[in-house]
Amino acid sequence: MRIVLVGPPGAGKGTQAAYLAKNLSIPHISTGDLFRANISQGTDLGRQAKSFMDAGNLVPDEVTIAMALDRMAQPDAENGFLLDGFPRNVFQAEALDKALTADGLHLDAVLDLEVDEDEVVKRIAGRRVCRNDSSHVFHVTYSPPKKPGVCDDCGGELYQRDDDSEETVRTRLEVYHTQTEPIIDHYREQGLVVTISALGKVAEVTKRAMAALEEGGRAA
């Protein structure tokens, strides 16, 4: 299957992508991983991306598209892939459509993880990270530490990252609504969008997503 995963920040796309890709035996292709891999490997695209990032600018669509298409052309993606973070806007979506059509391929589904804004803010703004080890992550509501402000694992101080503040989260949501959400309508016109609720336990959402993908094209 060839799938695009969409949803607002805090919808759990990264977590669901990993589980779905494993269940479907297809590679999980995320924009973040593409940037890191190309930069660390010193590819031409990686050098281009780094030059923009170092200058504090967004990586141009053309560079992002080239990276994604190059990754999708690798042998492990021959029978399908799950795209996470790409396409990020309608221009990228149209470029993906064109590239797939040129190869005689097509997307099978666009999985839209639906969650309301208040829940997104609650999920992200409630995160607390250990200053000693950023892999130690807690949540004031969903997975609170035994002692407020103290990491259960190492006793380090827990803090809220700047990009997890409510103000920043709402700004990220506005960017999502303006730039990324329009691709849902773009793909809905093609009958590809499958919308599911991203609320509940991870396993429940994964099960819901797999059922929706099997049904194909119908909201669940």
Automatic annotation (TrEMBL):
<feature type="binding site">
    <location>
        <position position="31"/>
    </location>
    <ligand>
        <name>AMP</name>
    </ligand>
</feature>
<comment type="similarity">
    <text>Belongs to the adenylate kinase family.</text>
</comment>
<keyword id="KW-0963">Cytoplasm</keyword>
<dbReference type="Pfam" id="PF00406">
    <property type="entry name" value="ADK"/>
</dbReference>
<feature type="binding site">
    <location>
        <position position="172"/>
    </location>
    <ligand>
        <name>AMP</name>
    </ligand>
</feature>
<feature type="binding site">
    <location>
        <position position="36"/>
    </location>
    <ligand>
        <name>AMP</name>
    </ligand>
</feature>
<dbReference type="InterPro" id="IPR006259">
    <property type="entry name" value="Adenyl_kin_sub"/>
</dbReference>
<feature type="binding site">
    <location>
        <position position="127"/>
    </location>
    <ligand>
        <name>ATP</name>
    </ligand>
</feature>
<keyword id="KW-0545">Nucleotide biosynthesis</keyword>
<feature type="binding site">
    <location>
        <begin position="10"/>
        <end position="15"/>
    </location>
    <ligand>
        <name>ATP</name>
    </ligand>
</feature>
<feature type="binding site">
    <location>
        <begin position="57"/>
        <end position="59"/>
    </location>
    <ligand>
        <name>AMP</name>
    </ligand>
</feature>
<keyword id="KW-0067">ATP-binding</keyword>
<dbReference type="GO" id="GO:0004017">
    <property type="term" value="F:AMP kinase activity"/>
</dbReference>
<keyword id="KW-0808">Transferase</keyword>
<feature type="region of interest" description="NMP">
    <location>
        <begin position="30"/>
        <end position="59"/>
    </location>
</feature>
<dbReference type="GO" id="GO:0044209">
    <property type="term" value="P:AMP salvage"/>
</dbReference>
<feature type="binding site">
    <location>
        <position position="161"/>
    </location>
    <ligand>
        <name>AMP</name>
    </ligand>
</feature>
<dbReference type="InterPro" id="IPR000850">
    <property type="entry name" value="Adenylat/UMP-CMP_kin"/>
</dbReference>
<dbReference type="InterPro" id="IPR027417">
    <property type="entry name" value="P-loop_NTPase"/>
</dbReference>
<comment type="pathway">
    <text>Purine metabolism; AMP biosynthesis via salvage pathway; AMP from ADP: step 1/1.</text>
</comment>
<feature type="binding site">
    <location>
        <begin position="137"/>
        <end position="138"/>
    </location>
    <ligand>
        <name>ATP</name>
    </ligand>
</feature>
<feature type="binding site">
    <location>
        <position position="92"/>
    </location>
    <ligand>
        <name>AMP</name>
    </ligand>
</feature>
<dbReference type="GO" id="GO:0005524">
    <property type="term" value="F:ATP binding"/>
</dbReference>
<comment type="function">
    <text>Catalyzes the reversible transfer of the terminal phosphate group between ATP and AMP. Plays an important role in cellular energy homeostasis and in adenine nucleotide metabolism.</text>
</comment>
<protein>
    <recommendedName>
        <fullName>Adenylate kinase</fullName>
        <ecNumber>2.7.4.3</ecNumber>
    </recommendedName>
</protein>
<keyword id="KW-0547">Nucleotide-binding</keyword>
<comment type="subunit">
    <text>Monomer.</text>
</comment>
<feature type="binding site">
    <location>
        <position position="200"/>
    </location>
    <ligand>
        <name>ATP</name>
    </ligand>
</feature>
<feature type="domain" description="Adenylate kinase active site lid">
    <location>
        <begin position="127"/>
        <end position="163"/>
    </location>
</feature>
<feature type="binding site">
    <location>
        <begin position="85"/>
        <end position="88"/>
    </location>
    <ligand>
        <name>AMP</name>
    </ligand>
</feature>
<keyword id="KW-0418">Kinase</keyword>
<dbReference type="InterPro" id="IPR033690">
    <property type="entry name" value="Adenylat_kinase_CS"/>
</dbReference>
<dbReference type="InterPro" id="IPR007862">
    <property type="entry name" value="Adenylate_kinase_lid-dom"/>
</dbReference>
<dbReference type="GO" id="GO:0005737">
    <property type="term" value="C:cytoplasm"/>
</dbReference>
<dbReference type="Pfam" id="PF05191">
    <property type="entry name" value="ADK_lid"/>
</dbReference>
